[in-house]
Design goal:
- By secondary structure, the chain is of the alpha/beta class.
- Helix content is 44%, strand content 19%.
- The protein contains twelve helices and twelve strands.
- Strands 1, 2, 3, 6 and 7 form a five-stranded antiparallel β-sheet that branches. Strands 9-8-10-11-12 form a five-stranded parallel β-sheet, sandwiched between helices. It has a two-stranded antiparallel sheet with strand order 4-5.
- α9 packs antiparallel against α10, α10 runs antiparallel to α11 and α11 runs antiparallel to α12.
- The chain is globular, with a radius of gyration of 22 Å.
Length: 383
Amino acid sequence: REFFADSARLNQILTNLIGNAVKFTETGGIRVIVSGIHGPEQTEATISVEDTGPGIAGENLEDIFGDFVALARASGRQSRGDGLGLSISRKVARLMGGDLRAESVLGVGSVFRLTLPLQRSEARARPREAPRPGASLHHLSVLIVEDNAINRSVLCEMLTGLGNSVTEAENGLEGVKKAGETGFDLIIMDISMPFMDGIEATRRIRQGAGPNRGTRILGLTAHGGQEFRQKAEAAGMDRFCTKPLRLSDLRNALQGMDGPDAPPPDPPALIATDVIGELREALGDEKVRATTEQFLAELADGVAVLRAQASEAESAVIADALHKLRGAAALLGLTGLCGAIDAAGEAGHGADRQAFVAAVDGIERVSAASAAALFARLTPRPG
């Protein structure tokens, strides 16, 4: 069966829940379970994220849904402090007509259970979106090389919805292998990946003797700098899209694959107006403003720590700190800030500490502009 739902908001909630499960589970495992109860016209869907982490005391279960709540741990490891993520995730779930609840046993693990009402649609009654005229938009064989499973899934849905067939690879090394075995019409290549990044993978595909030496390669990047793009172009990438990738961006990129001189996509907006509109409806303008101000204070502290520890911090520590900041930025609709945080994350994987510090400085600059754009949409405070 097929269902209608707000996929962007659903992805935001699940990204937060799964990210937290990964962060707080040292041993054991994580499971995501989907179930539903079918009614006459809609289905009550339940998505459970289970982990075998340290667990949460019963008296604290509701507290973790408050803003900027941190539950102390004696071990010295990062506390179960989910910042704005769980608070806004629950509010967004309730705005969608559902709810988000938690169950936990200390020393055993936790379960976060998201329930949502979904409108059913018979597959035959929901025609796929008609592709635009031109061979570059449909009937293409596409290889997606992307390490993030959610991003791969969203890209796959977008491309198949436009009438294309898709093959997936989880990292650059696997992408090079698949590109050496099968010919594709288009390769969509993420830049920052484990085992082998997108630039090196592109270079090997171009220099190899496989069937994709001349295949168009579309790069996905959080960077916007000319120097970075020059490296990617030198490796053999043809075009770029900036994360987060929207359906309109993908259509424009595919439309432009017929010619080498197609204009680059427009830069991403600083804020996601639809997300902010939902937050205003759920929380009210004053609560959105106060929550954003709290987050900006936390962001400023995080940026200061990252800058101070740039020369000695391990990439895993950097990634963990940026993950927390990005989750809150995404839930507040600060898309420009998400891009700047992604850029810092990619720079943090490299050995050039000066490039990382410059990317962290970029977070600070973009945060000010993003906050100004958000506050401009809110009702001014009296006086």
